[in-house]
Each structure stands twice: as C-alpha cells, then as structure tokens.
Amino acid sequence: MATAGADVDDEDAVARDTTRGATREGDEGDGAAAEAAAAARDATAPSEVEGQTLPMRVLDEYEFRDKFAEGKAVSVHGSRPNRVLVLGRARKLEGGEHGLPSEVLAAPLTPQDKPPHALKLMEVHDWTIKYGGDEPELWLVTPRAWYKLLNPAPRFEKYVTVTTRRANFTNAIVRALVKNWELSLEEGLDIILGVPVVAHDVPVAVKTPTKAAKMLGDTTAEAQKEAALNGCTEEEIRESKDTSAYKYTHADIVGDGFFIVSQIETLVRCKALRPPTASEEADVPAPQFLTALQTWTTEKHQLGSATKASRLERDRARREKLRAEKKAEKESESKPRVPRLEPPPPASPILPEYSHIGPHLQAELLTLWDFAQVFASVMYCPRSTLERFAKAFFGSDLGAAEATLLRDFMVSCLRVTEGRIDSIDQETIRSAPTRARWWDAPVLGLNDIGELDWQDRANNLIVEFQMGVNARMRKPALEAVAKLDKGEVLESFSPVHRIALAVALSSIALESETIREYFTEIYDDVRARRRTGDFHSNPPTLATEVPKPTEEKKKETSKEINVKDENPEVVDDADESVSMEVDETDASEELVKPPTLADYRREQLMKWKSEAVERAVISRGKPVAVDEQGRRYFALGGTNNAGRLFVETAPLGWYDGDEDAASSQVIDGVEYPKQPMAGPPVEDAPFSEDAANTPDCRRNVSGLVECASRWGVYTPGTVEYDALSYWCNPKYDNERYITKLHRLMSHAVDGDADAPELSDDDRRKKVEILSETLAMDGYANLDDVALGSVDDAKLTSRLFNAVKFILHSAPFWRTGDMRWIDRFIRTCTHFESALNASEQSLVRLLKVLPGIEIVCAQAGLMDDVAWPDAKPTWLAQLRYYVFGPRTEAELEGTTAAPEVSEPIPGINDILAAPELLDPLPPLTVRRAANLVNQFLRFLVQDPQRMSQGAFQMCTGVSHGVGAINTGEVVAVIKRGLVKTYNRYVDKKSRPRNWIDVNTLRPVERCVVLGTAYRGSEAPRRNAASDGDTPPCAWLMCLLLDDPELSQFPSTRRQSADAEQADAKEAKDERRLIIAPLYAGGDIAEYVLPWSKYQEVDEKPWDGGSRIIMHFEGVDAENEARGIVSVDGCVYYLGRVRKVRSSPDRWETVMVVFDSDPEDYMWVSPWEIIAAPEKYHDPVHEGPAPVDHERELSPEDMTLIAQCKAIARRLGWPSGDHRRDFDKFRAEAFAGGVIPQAPIFCGAQMNLHRVFIEAMHLGGYEQVTRCKFWKVVARTLGRDLSTQTSASFAMRKYYEKCLFPLEKYLTSAEMIENLGIVIDASTDPMDRFPASRPATDFDDDDDRVDDGDDDDDMDDEDDADGMDVVDKKKKEEDADDYKISDDDFDEDDPSDSGESDSDFKGR
C-alpha cells in the first residue's frame, strides 16, 4: 500500500507506515518525518504483534469540525489535525479489532454486520492517503484506532473537494508510474486530464477563464472555458447539478502541480513507490516525470522567469495605454458637436390652477417646497406633495390639512432656529412623521406648546434678523408679522404674505447650527459612500438582465443527537454522552430565487428614490442637467420628486461674449449655424399677483436663480416627458441624466418576460400612476377634518396637558429630599384640580405655574445665571393676569394686597411681583402659552424627557403602563419591582427614604401620584447588557393598604425593637413606591389597574386555551407566522401550555406562540387575551364507549380488515413509511394543533409504532374489546414489569394523539384514496395470515398476580396510574424501532451480548 502524509501544503510531509502501533505519542498530526517512516521499515521497527496493534475501522458520513468552534465546518486540505475534531458513523471491520494489519488489508475490508454508530473523534493525530488502488483512500489515526474514511456527509462534500481532486490526480500518476517508470510529461498530463471532475468541483477555466488563460500563457479565456465545458453549456450543467459534465484543463494541473510533486517525491523517498523491476534494497532515482512536472508548474506560475523589473515595465506600459485612451476620449468630447437647431419640446406649467400667481412667487414656492422636503427629517414635518403645498400658500379656501401644513412649516423653522434639542425628545425625532397631527392629537413634547404661540416668537425673530431675508420678501414679511401681532390668523393672509413669512423664517433657519450639522452629516456620509462606489449622482443604467443571484444557505434547523466520545471511560454511560448540535438539513446550498427583470428594474427605481435627499444635499441646489440650448433642469422635492424634471430658462450670461446668435461655426470643415439659445419652457401668461421685482437678488435657499421667467415641469407619463427624452442626446454628459431617468421610469412598469409589450398609451398611463404613488402626502389624513372643529376649549385642554407633561417630568424618581417631594405632590394636587375642573381656566393654570417653576428650580433644572434676571418680569406678567393691575391705593400702600384663598405653592411670589409699566393684551390661549414658553426657555435641555403620547408612539405600547394616568388605583407586583430594580436601577441611585421593597406584600394596592416617561439611556456601570436601556415609565405610587387592614396576609417585617420601629415609621411615613417600567417586554408587566388585576380570578386560564398577546413594535399582520389583526390591533397568536399557582399571579401562565412553537414564554394572566373563536382548535370527536358483550357485525369485521390493511400500508411490521404517517397525521389534525408525542416509560412514545400495531390488531375498538393495549405497549420494547397502569395510559394517549388519525384514515374517502379493497365475504384474519396474536398467548391483563389494576378498561379512576410518565427529559431517538445506540462500544472487547435492535419485527 503506497501512502503519503496528508499535510498537503508541506513538502516535507512523508508517508506513514501502515503498521499499527507505529504512531508515536505526542505526534500532533503534521505528518510523520521521513526518518520515522524509514525506521518503520527497519528491522528494529516493531513487528506486527497480535493484540498490540491499533484496531482498524471505517468511518462513514464524516465531517471535520473546528475543535474550538464545533459548529464550524473546516476543509480537509486547509486545516491541521490537532485543530480539528471528526464526526461520523463508525463501523468495525471483520478481523479489524485484533487481526494483523497485513491480513486485514490483504483482503477486501468487510464491515461487521452491525449498525453504524454516531462517533466524535476529539483527538486526531494525523491522516494519510493511500494510493495505488482504483480510488485513493483517506485514513486517519487516533490514539485508539485507525479509521478509513468512506463517504463524507452530504453537507460536507464541498469541504473535501480539493483534497479529493488532488488525491485523484496523484493516484492516476502513481498507477501510471507503476506500469511505466519512464512516463513522459505529455503522457502524464493527458492521464491527469482524463480524471473525472469531483462532485461540487468547478474547473478553474469555468470559474475564472481569464485567470486560467494568463496562467497558461499560450491560450485564450474562451478556449479554456470551452475546453472545460466539454461540449455542454453552463446553464445545462447548472440545471442538472451534475459537475461531472465538466472537464479538467491544464490550469487545474498548474494549481495542484506542487502537491502532486510533493506526494510522489515522498512515496519514492520512503520506497513505497518503486519501478516494477527494482528490488526493495536498491536505491532508485526519481522518475523523470517528477522533475518535468515541477519545472512545467514553475514556469506556468512564472516563478523565476518573470523578474520584478519586467513586471514593473508591463505595469508602466499598461498605465500609459490607459492614459492615451482617456486623452483621446477627452479630445473627442471637447470637439464641437453639430448643433441641434430644433428647440426642446415645451414643458407644462408647474401650477396651472394658480396661473394668476406671478413667476416670482412661483419660484419662491418651489424653493420652499424643496426646502421642506429635503430637510423634512430635521424639521420633523410630514412630507407633502407640490399640489398640497401650493394650495396651502396660494389657495383661498383652506382646510384643516392646509392650515396644519402652514403651522408645521412655521413652527419647524422656529424650532430649528432656536436650537432646543428637547422640543422633540430623542426617541420621537429618530423617525420623521408620516401623518399630520391635528389639535386633538396627544401631546408629544415641548413643541406642542410652541405650536400655540409661534406667532409671538416669529414676530420677535423676524424683526431681529430682518436683514438676513432677501430684499424681495423682506417688506411683505414685516407686514405679515404685524398682522400676526394684531391677532389675524395665517389662513386669511394673501399669498404674498404667506410666502414672505415662510421665506423669512426658512432663510433664518438655514443659518442655524442644526441645519449645518445635518448638512455636514449627510455630506460626509455621501462622500464616504461615493469613495466606496455605493453612491452615484446620476440615475442607474437600466438593467438588461438580472444580476447573478447570490448563494445563500438554507435556514439551518438543528436537533440534538447523542454522539459517543472515544474516551473509554464514558462510552457506556448514556448520561455522559456528548450532546452535539448537528444540522438536520442537507448542507447543499440552494440558489435564492432571483427576481424577474421587471422586479429588478423597479428595485433600481426605488433605490434611486430613497437617495434623493442625499443627492439634493450634495448638489447644493445645482441643476441635475443642462441641455445644449441652455435650459437648466432641477430634481426638486427630495423623495417626493416622483421623477419630475423642473426646467428653468437659461440665465443671462450662459454664453460667453456678445456674438450674434445667428453667426456660424465650422466643424470638421463644414459650416453650421451656431447653437441657438432656447426660449422660456412655457408660454408667458398674464398674472394678477406677484412679489416685487428686485433684479439685484442673489440665490435663495435652494439655489434657484430668481428671474422673471416662468418655470415648467416635465411629468412622467406625459407626451412631453417622452419627447424631451427623445430630443436629448445621451452622448452629451449634461443631457444623459434626462435620458437615463426617462428609461428608468418608463421601464419600471414593464411586465414579466412573457407579458405582451405595452403600447405607448398604456405605458404612459402606468407610468403616471407609478409617479403618483412615489409621492407621499402626509396631510391627506386631515382632508375630512373641518377647520372650525377646534375652539379655545380644545386649545386650553391641550395647553393643560402640555404643562402636566412638564410638571411630571421633574425628577421625582431620583431625589431623596422629602420636602421637595411634599412640594411636588402638593403642586401636582392643585394642578390636577385645575385640570379636572368642569371648565378649565387659564387663570388657574397661571396660578400653578410659579409652583412648577419652584419644583424645577429646586431640582436644579433652571438656568441659574439668566433666569433670576428674567423671573421678575415673568412673575409680573402672571400677576397682571391673575390679580389684575394694582390699584392706586395698592401702589401707595394704603390698601393690602388681595388675600389668597388657596394655599397654592408659589402664589405668594405672584403677589410680591413688581408692577408692569404698560398694560398687557387680553389673556388668550396663545398668550398663556407664551408665558409658559418664557419659563421653558430657561429650563435645562433634556432630550430624554418624553410625554405619554410620545412613549406610546415610540414603543408601540398603547395599553398597560402606557395608559396608566395619575390618580388611578393600581396593583404593584413585588417580584416584578424587585427584578426591575436589580436589572436596571443601581442601588446607589435609589433614594434611602423611599420604602424598602423587601417590606412589601406580594401585591400592593396603590394610587398613582406621578408619571414620568424617559427615553433610552446609557447602561449603568456593571450592567448585564452593553446596549442602551429601553424607554422607561417612572410611577410614583402611594400605598393604600395599612399592614393590619390589608385584605392580604401581612408579610411586612415588623421589628421587635421599638426604636427601630419608630425610625421605620418616620422613614415610611408617606409610604411611597417608585416603580420603573421599561419598554421591551423582557420583564413582564407588573403594574396594572387594580380592576384588571381582580379580573384574573374571574377568568382563569386552562392548558390548551388559544390566546392572543400584543407585543411592542409589531404593526403588520402575517397569519402565516401567527400574527393576526383583531379590532385594528396586531397580536401574536398562541396557546396556553400550563398554569402554575402563585400568590401574586405574576408570570404564572406558560404560553407557546404559533410563530415559534419550539419555544415558550412565561407571561402574566393579564397580559393575554382569549383568541377569537375562529382561531380556536377544531373539536375532534372522541371514541364512543366500547360494548364488550356485543357480537361483531359484518361492518365491524370490514372495519377490522381495513385497519389491518392500513397498518400494512403504513409500514407494519418493518416500521418504514414514517413520512406517510406524519403526512396523514398532519392532515387529520388540519386546522388545529398536532399533539406531541407523550413520555411513556421514561422515553418519548413512538407514535408511528403504536399506531401501526394498534391498527394491525384491528383498531381502537377491537384492541379495547380484546384488552390488547398492553400488547401494543410491549411493542415499544420498554420494561413494563414495574408499571401498574401501562394499558390504561396507552389507551388514553392513543385517544388523544392517534384516534383522530384512525377516524380519518378509515373514512370512505381515504379508503378509496389509499386503494384498499375489502372482500366482505372473507374473514379479516384469513386475509392477513400470521397477523392474529398467538393462540397460547396469556394476556397479562387477565392475570390476578400481574400487579396491574387495569382489568377494567373503562374505570376512569385509574387516571392516577398515568404517573408512569417520567418527568425527566431524555435526549434519545424518538423512533424506538430503530437501532439502539447502546450496542456499539468501539473499545469494548466484545459486543456479542448486545442486541441489534430493541424491536423485533414479526
């Protein structure tokens, strides 16, 4: 046997002698040294001694895994033996355990007639390859045995491809050298080329034909690929998945040449390969083929012959060639082109319904719309269409949608300018809104107060920064703010004043730090993506074919299998067997189904649309295209552009010099007239309203040139759009954008390849519809809302709710000052009284504001530097509205100040405030909101501050903690509180004077005094998770039940020491609890309304009940994954597995969801809801009582015969056809849950075996009548001697898991489908010979001393006997009729006493 070392990349690897026992201890598998191999042949080497040599075995379905990452497969050729472990199915050989190797290897290797067993080889010393046979053999050696590797596991075949190919090449040469030692290079290469291609292998000439051609040097890539395809096509081979149709080429030999040389050299040096006529003692020279192959391979690799200097010279020549080509291309582009004398096709007016609006205002509107869409995310405004935007600024009959758009635009510009980052919290601002919010929407943050008084702030801002507004809009902007100051509403303004106000605010906002930071962030990201080729300014080239799909592995599913380790100390202990995760699916890779060409083109368009904002930012308002006649084309609107091209007349100065437009030019010796300058894109029309013409203006916010020409637009789906594309020259760089965009839009509506080609009219209609769907209108939801639906009462309520959010955001959860807590609670009490009054009063709100200011100031939330100077003026304004101006007597001191009937915190500060010199306007909601904003301007910025509405929107939690309000009575579960504290709240940050959670009952009844919502924060030190903590709701709760008066048994610890008791009473005097509830669902809801908690006892859950449960962040229905929509809400569908008891009822229900039936979750009973009736399981009819005395009718005999036929159809007695059984069982339980196999006698029941045995005995009724259930139980091969009710348990399990299947299969329809024909005239037992139980069989059920109490099969009291179920989970094979894993011990000297199977077929 010629062998060579397996370290394929090491030329010093040598052959290892096959004499077992020659492996030295400590050899780490890098190949035995040549000296050791020679010594093995020396006379002093150990000879074959029976009993002292390693056993020889075979290993099938093997896999090589990384020893330090067992889930990772490694290739054979690229890994070292000491870093791998090997899995497989091992079998012993006849004589291989104790026989002499020479005798075993001299005969064909015959495995013993025993089943293979799963094996894991943890310690592999080395592997070697045997050459000379029909196929090379791969052997590996461990400290205990030699293993011949047979076939790799299907999923591992690709990892052994390289080694198999190299071994086949070498084996072919070895066999040829044995016959002809003078083998020439040409003959040897031809022999190697005749080797069949290994499975899963692809020749180099097919994968990289260019590389193969360069490697050989004397051929072309096409010739190499044609030779490798061997007359076939790639598509044919790919479809057939038969790689043997390929053929190896010389390029493959070049890649493996050094390996072949190394292996043959090792065999010759160790005298394992010799000429046929040479003696064993003679030294023979290496064959000439060895030297020739090494020289040929070296030349092909260009090693030695290609010097560094020559390579540099070639690189230099290649660069010079590229430089010359670019120069020639540049010269051709700079060459004058023949002018196009025909003008471009006319465009459509941008806003035909507002033709009375002049060009200046239309240009400003385009600028504002582009600004609003491009910066929509940083401005936090819903996107709108151009038509909606124009109606808001130019229309006369505005609705709620247009009024909201105007408000949002103005407020957003103010917020960006002021730079208050907590106007919208950090969680809400992460995603731009998609729907507009009306005045009745929940309060989201401080920005909601800004929506009530934006007019006053806009007035101050524009007056201060008026010089930053362009000259055309400056005067009307000042006029607009004057109207606002008089109380006029924006909707009543003229278009000029609306546009002017928006232009002024946007111009100021553009200079803000917020816009600059956003611009810089986008700009840097685009530059980085452009360097890597991930971003392009021009539209993508229309795809003509779908790119080759990427290969992805099938989703891996795994199962637990027991694999015996080689360690002889644990091979016989089943509990110490090694548990390995092994993939159940085939490892062969599956090609992902590629999209159709039409789908891929639509993907191109959508990706292009998604990057519109980045392109707008990077272009800085520049045109996307300029045609040869000077028209400039803009892609305005960001992602709402919808493929439109806005065109502007060429500005003055586009052509250099003052040459006559009619002058001629000479191109290639031919005289042509000069390129004419295009006229306006649309015809001029009279207008009645416009802004003043100021020709000295410069570029405005979007970079559009302010000139008096009218703008036009080319809209997809119109004849003008197509005509423009046909007019443009795609070879002209400045017009290529237009032609590529037109092709992208036009072909995005194509059908599949077999669909008929669209006509021009049909294509335009579809493109028009597509363009409309690309634009998003976030204000469409307010179309049906009346503008007059809001009044002062609603605005007042909104202001109250916003102030409540500010008050409750004071950090009560981290303070230990009880005096501050007392002031906070009293302030909250007075505010709640004003909030819940039958008629909310703005005066009462202003009375509470000083108390809120004091709470914030004492908590360190106010600006200590600037606020003390502004506070007196603020208090003076409050006094003016609360108590009115002081009288002359009060100013002179002859009359006392008015008395205060309510002890409201901070009311004395209002009384002591100074008097204003000038009177104030009447108190309105807008004025009250401005007073609140004056105070908020000095509040410390906190972007983590959230409102209840923002918390619900960001977390998706609209129920539970997201719906708890102050004043509500709730139940607090102690275990949930403690678990949350331990996970999220550091002990050092817990105030000491709060009540100790360890003194709480399991469930406490409390009233909520305060609620604060916070965004995600950085994790605390030494936290279990490295990520940010999720958004949180903090609740301040007051205990309602005294320990002695509680309806629960008191579990609070009472100290015997009176002093400690007094101290504890002082500490817990207020008896407050602070309860944090974090979004995310990792900790079950432990604070809930008390009424909801009491409902748990009224609606107990039972095992098997169908339920639904709401999870955060799920908003899409998918019934295939168990996600259903009920009453507009999305839930996960599941089932109650079991319920446990607990005094607090927290996490007492185990639920298994349909989306992940392999996993379970413990939830609280109040978190789940009963599923609707349509999701409940169908009720399967159970078996009727069996009449033991009734004689069998012909119908009964026919049913028995049918059952026996079905048993044989499903694999009786061999146990095969398991797949058919599983399929029929799934059909029988269609629409409901399929019961899992129960645990019977300590192991999972083999339902297939039980079913075919029961059916073979005549079915459920016959087995019950004849008391054959213990006969069925015995077929499982379990020990029933200690089981007292095995028969009863077996029958009950059959009724639950298998009886519906019996009813299904014995139905007339299924009998016909199965092709079962029964002759009623024949006895069923006669039709199935040898199927009747033995006549001398003594049923143990009828014995008196059998210790079994299941003689009466209908006695339901025997249910207690089902305790035979072993609760301990076993990791054993569920198919009990398969070969047992305990009958093979590779180190046991004898296996004769072990059984091959625990089931004997009849």
From TrEMBL:
CDD domains: ARID (cd16100). One of its GO terms (molecular function) is transcription cis-regulatory region binding. Coiled coil: none annotated. Residues 13-26, 310-340, 548-567, 1364-1381 have a biased composition (Basic and acidic residues). Residues 1-54, 301-349, 531-589, 1325-1402 are annotated as: Disordered. Gene3D superfamilies: ARID DNA-binding domain (1.10.150.60). Residues 1208-1306 form the ARID domain. Keywords: Nucleus, Transcription, Transcription regulation. SMART domains: ARID (SM01014), BRIGHT (SM00501). Residues 31-45 have a biased composition (Low complexity). GO terms for cellular component: nucleus. Residues 568-589, 1336-1363, 1382-1396 have a biased composition (Acidic residues). This is ARID domain-containing protein. It comes from Ostreococcus lucimarinus (strain CCE9901).
